[in-house]
């Protein structure tokens, strides 16, 4: 766990720290290889229960037991679950995000990558929570396959993964609505991102948007049952993967 006051190349963490310390206009810029640059106000990561999308509120309702909140950001989901009496460990690879969560009162916080083997030393979890398109943390379809195996070592018997993702095929439609895809290229849901804040730009990272059918194929092949619990008009969905 890190409590360093300043870590290079952590634009997300620095934006969250600034917002937490009163700079309410702190805004990241999200750069990708599939869309125009987009602003991401730090305030969005501090949202309250009633500011959360319905998919997220549904996920919180079906959490069970010990929860591992992956990519926890400023801790909005972890704090809500703590209030409800859950034991939650909040995980984020951003040292600044970890500092913010500690300062906001998240009781168990760790600065680790999702695939860090140290997580296997924990007591097993009943729920792995991956919200805000959190399945994307696996990076690629290869990463999804690796994660589904890795998660088996983190989950208690009958444990569940609750994750949101989206089908971004609409980004590749032509004017007539037909898909224009490079079938010899990577899967269209594998996106490369960078984040910047003020004068600081972070390292590029991969993010996966998995359409429902490909997620179902990978999860069933890895030995999970798949239930799609909810979806919205932006082609985002909430899925529950349960160990057989």
TrEMBL record:
The keyword Transferase is assigned to this record: yes
Determine the domain of life of the protein's source. Answer: Bacteria
Q: Which SUPFAM superfamilies does the entry mention?
A: S-adenosyl-L-methionine-dependent methyltransferases
Record the organism. Hymenobacter citatus
Question: Does this entry carry the keyword Secreted?
Answer: no
> Which InterPro entries has this protein been placed in?
Methyltransf_25, SAM-dependent_MTases_sf
Q: Which UniProt keywords apply?
A: Methyltransferase, Transferase
Q: Gene3D superfamilies of this UniProt entry? A: Vaccinia Virus protein VP39
Any one GO MF annotation of this record = methyltransferase activity
User: Which protein are we looking at?
Assistant: Class I SAM-dependent methyltransferase
- Which Pfam families did the record assign? Methyltransf_25
What biological-process terms (Gene Ontology) are attached?
A: methylation
Residues in Methyltransferase domain copies: 67-159
CDD domains recorded for this chain? AdoMet_MTases (cd02440)
